[in-house]
# Entry
Amino acid sequence: MHFGNEGFDAIRAENIRKALFNTIFVGVISAFLSVTIGLSLAYILLNVRTKMKTLFSIIFMLPMLVPTLTHGSGLILLFGNNGIVNRFFGLKTQIYGFWGCVFGFVLYTFPTAFIMFLNILKYEDKRQYEVADVLGVSKLRQLGGITLPYVFKSFTSILSAIFALIITDYGIPLMVGGQFKTLALMMYSDVIGLSKSTGSSISILLLVIAFSALVIELKNQTKPEAFNAKYNLNRYIENKTVKWLSRFFLTIISMFIILYIGIFLIAAFSKAYPYDLSFSLDNFTKVLNGSGIKYLKNSVGSSLGIALIGTCLAYTFAYFTTRSNKKNIIIHVLSICPAAIPGIVLGLSYVLNFKGSFIYGTILIIIIINIVHFFSPVYLLAYNALIKINKNIEDVAQVFGISKLKAFKDIIFPTTFITILDMFSYFFIYSMITISAVSFLSNVNIKPISLMIIQYDNTQHLGNVAVVALVILAINIFQKAIIGLVKKYSKIYN
# Structure
């Protein structure tokens, strides 16, 4: 049977419409679940007396230290046709399709929501709760009448940010989507497969959706307020039923994450997962004795460069937009705009604009695109920290003959030092795990190790995928540990 161009175009348009619906539907469901879980975990850790809070916090952050493709691989290793859960319990659960994508997206994004809510709730003024206690208002009514209204705008803002993260990711649908197609996955398939040139039209759709989410996020952002440490004392909920349910919830989420990380350990150290689970280092040998070491050096080297240069740029931009007497609204808007550009769209635009230039095919273009890709969240970290510092500090310093440079060195920089470390850490981690922005720009010389996951998944070498995931996770944990030590022992911090 022969189809003319009009027939193919009609089919193509219908596929795009279906993918658009899938993208919005899975994005809304996944984002709502992710943000709800993140808020619940943050609230419990701050308001319910629980042991091992630090350990729980570390466990909840682990999924954000590995590439999104790894989340799909982990779900396959657990719940796929030959997954360890199905084989052990004799089940026939299917992880592929809509619910597989939802599961993967929630696992991917809830740690981000958790960290955001933890930071917001940590600085909530507790005086209104003291008044409520005096008036005999129950903890449940305090939750509904004080806490939820306080976090409502933040909830909407974080929901929009998580939604944007989800709709622009193609890694999870690629691994567990099956016949469930999203716009990001269609765009990736078109560009990689060199099929009909519809990547640009799909990228416009993604850009519009992501930009709309950003507008909602910015509209609902609350202005940073000065924090009164006197009223930051936690007032724990002592109800036994609430404490039991809260600890049960924390334990269930933690156990699943541990199981998720543990399956990578099993697969990585197995001779031939899932058929032969005997101990072997063959997977590590195959990955690290091949091109793995080279790609690992590419990732670590570029991530350090991205973190160092990007942190300096983002902090400088934030300093001028918050400390200058002039309204630097243009710089502020330009600094936020990259958040509305999906990584896969950014990567395609760099291919179209820089192909043939002196930076194309070099590590420099990887550094540049990742700085642009992750610039907005890091900029906002610095912006929100600097805007809390009284703008009159420099003027008062000048009255006493102290230069602005010295005021910055002795007051502003020490005050925001912890934020600077967090900025560096954010750039490094996301540069290590990113796939979308660099997938179209990498070659054998500058390829990051995260892209090896696609290579090994295509050949069904799940043990090798697990090794790559564990290597990236180990490096990111090591980096977080170093940052933690610097925070703890720095003279500036103390």
